[in-house]
Batch of 3 targets.
Target 1
Amino acid sequence: MGPKKASVSGISGEKRKKVMLSLELKQETIEKHERGVHASDLTKQYGRNMTMILTIIKQKVAIKVVKQSKGITIISKHCSPTLEEMERLLLMWIEDKEFAGDMITEMIICENASAIYCDLKAAVSGGDAGESSTDPTTEEFKVSSGWFKKFKQRTGIHSVVQHGEASSSDTKAVNEFVKQFEKILH
């Protein structure tokens, strides 16, 4: 038997971590390249490998088109404009609910996401649900726990969503109790 091969990261048994660049960083990289900075200089500047920089440059059209919604800082693939708009509107709805002090759960958010997507899809297709598109970015949206988990990661809403007992608690009563308790202590 021959010698064992070293792993990709150089340390046996350790996996290489996938590095995601922020949308802002990708757009900055593209702008610098368009101003004449060479890809090799960008690799040194950002500490990334040549393949990653060249992939960003190759995908510059798709990256430029993406409108950064509040809270969304990372794109891992280009998704349909309808899906992007749905997530932007959903995030605005969540922020409104949070500002109003309403409790929202994963189930409520997912139901609303599905409803917003269906409304947007109907508006885009002119109400013709049977219309098929040749655009590869138009995918059918399916609400799932995986989508919800990634949506939370992209938007940073992890502290908004409450489940089970936490979502049914009376926050007004809790806040009143805290105020009364503070008065007693002081």
Target 2
Amino acid sequence: MKGGFNYNMMGRLVSVTLTALVCTTILLWAWEKNPFADTLLLARERFPIPSIDFLEDSPKNSSKSTKTDRNIQGKDIEETNKIQNSGAAPIQGKDTPSATIDETKKIENSGVAPTDYAFSPIMDGHNLNATSTDQRKVCNFAKGRWIPDIRRPLYSGFHCKQWLSAMWACRLTQRPDFSFEGYRWKPDSCEMPDFERSSFLRRMQDKTIAFIGDSLGRQQFQSLMCMATGGEESLEVQNVGKEYGLVKRRGAIRPDGWAYRFPKTNTTILYYWSASLCDLVPLNSSNRTTDVAMHLDRPPAFMRQYLDRFDVLVLNTGHHWNRGKINGNRWVMYVDGKPNQDKRRAQIDRAKNFTIHSVVRWLDSQLPSHPHLKTFFRTISPRHFFNGDWNTGGSCDNTTPLSGGSEVVQEGSSDVVIEAALRGTKTKILDITALSQLRDEGHVSRYTIRGTAAGNDCLHWCLPGIPDTWNELLIAQI
């Protein structure tokens, strides 16, 4: 009996052991297949635990983090399920450690995109640096709408005479209506901060902003000068054009550009005229009537010479790319240091496209050695000539704001040439084409200081006006 009892007890023990092993195996298999396992992993990726515990290679910290995992699992899963059911983008949960929340606020306030900043924790073999499809989307400043704003304009059109060309100061002309001044641009996917000149100058302390382009680039430069000074004359602002060789040459109507410095913050804003963004070299420097080599594959010498002094560079080109301008300026297309022999490349659109791609590629090659430099390429400013062109009776007499609509809903840029050239590069697009297309009432039109005009200017803008918004978009992206 005693031996039978022992035999039965051993059999029961083996049965219980086998049953326990089978149940454990089933539970482990079920856990791996359970949807909550994926949910927990997703929760950990969306609500990362501070990395400091994972960077310390000690058993004590390892056990501490495991304990923390267990404590927040239930709440993480609950919060994650709420996010998935609502379709909303992930946010920091209320149980997220304060260190993580503080770091997140720093990122949001600094304007750095989530993909540019990493907490770097490694958990369960998963790298939480991986970009999530649910991360905050990059703001599309060009998609939005114009809305009324009684705080506009940003400066006086009467008093900014020190910086603003009289031909663009529409308040000094016979124009009767200025309702175009009372609107601001509101992007759909993000908030654009209100411009405040003292804050702007503090942010730009010890920095140089350079505009290189045509007369529309000059308008943007003058607009920013008026914005930064409040549209008032200032004896403190220094003319530092000589530092950049921007002086009026003998016989010239004006210098090739201007440069001004705000001494309190050591902020410099300059403009250099380069309508084509090509390097222009007279074929005979002693003869002003000689042809000029237009090097399509070489950026302007000014840009090459002073690039290391720039912190923000804004380029633009477009309206001088027509046969009349090229022939009138006696520009002769050059490639590889010799006259262009490619007839297809000589076509205006192809030559322009080739030049833009060349400039952008050159900038991309320079950025590794200029890590402080931010580069932007502004898209083309739209013309609004109706019933003809500038020399065939075209006009832009509309004075009703936004008569053609107030909203831009498209995703891509209307300037496909610039958009394509910048794709895959580190130069950012300053996309102003579609939003400016809605503002045909904001041009200089037929109004002048003298009250008479031989034609209509439906290319340049009144200042204050639309170029002020271009600068707000630029500052927001800086």
Target 3
Amino acid sequence: MSAVKMTEGLLEVASCKAPLFYRQSEPASGAAKRRVLLLHGIRFTSENWLHVGTLETLARAGCRAVAVDLPGLGNSKSAEAPAAVGELAPGGFLKEVCEALGLSAVVVVSPSLSGMYSLPFLFQHQALVQAYIPIAPICTEKFTAEQYQSVTIPTLIVYGDRDTQLGEASLGNLGKMPNHSVVVMRGAGHACYLEDPDAWHRALTEFLDAL
């Protein structure tokens, strides 16, 4: 198996007034076929993607993956969030993050809280996004059916079948995207990727390989 390079760093984002912390994985060769941005929920940080093995899995699959600690959380506690929890952040925020990290044609993985960041970015800057992987994100009710129908990029909707609140509600909205597929993780709750990492990584890599 190919070797993996893991690094950590700080990212300057003008709107945050303090750096954002991030972890990065990539093939040791440095030649990555895809770029993936990993966001997280309110009780989690980039560290979860490290411990569950997603950063390593993506690098072994030939991807450059960057997991950020969102503003006010984890090692980015000093950074000022561009919007209150549950409100929509400006779409330009993640655009600035991706530009600073050199993540063009990015695949965005967005669980729970991070929907407040990823959805505005997706709707305002769809041309910068190669694919979208929402995992029961918040804020899906804040957009119209017409807006969802305008998103043509490949989308993998993931949720646990025990997540009867956000999982099912977000599916009802995200399912209006014309180019979507759905993975229901059996016996898993809201943080389904943590409960069954093998099933999560299998779904993730199969989706990426098909892009």
